[in-house]
Amino acid sequence: MARRKSTMDWNTPAKAEAARRSVNALRDARAAAAADRIATTMIVGVETLETRRSDRLDFHDVAVWELKAALIAAYEAGRRDGTTEEG
User: Looking at the chain, which terminus has fewer C-beta neighbours within 10 angstroms, N or C?
Assistant: First the structure.
């Protein structure tokens, strides 16, 4: 039986751009989740990285050693993620 030709051309620039946007959105979501996890576990008093429109909730006093640990954790997470993905 003859195979029916697909009417969709998946190799168009628009399809490639849509795929790139999808991959970037997933990468951005993973990065945001990692940043939130690092901040809430390593910096005392930070419950979320979401804006809550309150100075009391959105601004924090942070010890430099907490900030340093969080930055190192973020760097290491990015380094690990960069070695597992192509691109």
Answer: N
pLDDT digits (tens, 9 = 90+) for 63-83: 999 999 999 999 998 888 877
Query: What's the number of domains the chain is made of?
Result: 1
Count of CA atoms in the C-beta half-sphere (13 A) of 7? 0
User: 9 in a domain, yes or no?
Assistant: no
Residue among 48, 38, 44, 37 at smallest CA distance from 70? 38
Range of the domain at 56: 17-84
> 46 CB contacts (<8 Å, ≥6 apart)?
39, 40, 60, 62
Cα–Cα distance measured from residue 40 to residue 49, given in angstroms and rounded to the nearest whole number? 8
